[in-house]
Automatic annotation (TrEMBL):
Organism of origin: Pseudidiomarina maritima
Compartments where located: Cytoplasm, Cytosol
InterPro entries hit by this protein: FliT
Protein name: Flagellar protein FliT
GO biological process, one term: bacterial-type flagellum organization
Superkingdom of source: Bacteria
Major subcellular site: cytoplasm
Alphabetical UniProt keywords: Bacterial flagellum biogenesis, Cell projection, Chaperone, Cilium, Cytoplasm, Flagellum
């Protein structure tokens, strides 16, 4: 019996062809599109679901891609897809930072209100 390490089993599970690697990048773009739409619509539940799918695809791709040689055209396709994904990621992060800032302001305002109400009661 030949011993197979866990990492080898994972790599075999996720073995992809060069075309499948590129298709996986298109899948990442689809998840990124969903995440961007969710954040633009302030649909936080959908954002989390899309982000989980995105992370799963990234993990699958990171294991499988190491063993694949892409053609020059496929490398160009990958670069273009990653560029779009990174642009979307930038907008998603900017919108999330804006949302966090708004929530922080709301919490500060609520804390001030509670302190004022407490002061008036005492």
């Amino acid at each position: 019996m030949i011993a197979v390490s866990a990492s080898e089993r994972v790599a075999r599970t996720y073995a992809l062809s060069a075309t499948e690697v590129i298709m996986s990048y298109y899948t990442l773009l689809e998840h990124s599109n969903q995440m961007l739409a969710s954040v633009r619509n302030e649909d936080w539940d959908s954002l989390i679901k899309a982000e989980l799918q995105y992370v799963e695809e990234v993990e699958r791709l990171s294991v499988a891609e190491a063993e694949v040689e892409l053609s020059d055209q496929q490398k160009l396709d990958k670069l273009q897809l990653l560029s779009t994904i990174m642009d979307q990621d930038r907008e998603i992060r900017e919108r999330l930072v804006a949302r966090r800032t708004m929530l922080e302001q709301t919490l500060r305002s609520m804390n001030k209100k509670q302190k004022l109400e407490h002061s008036y009661r005492n």
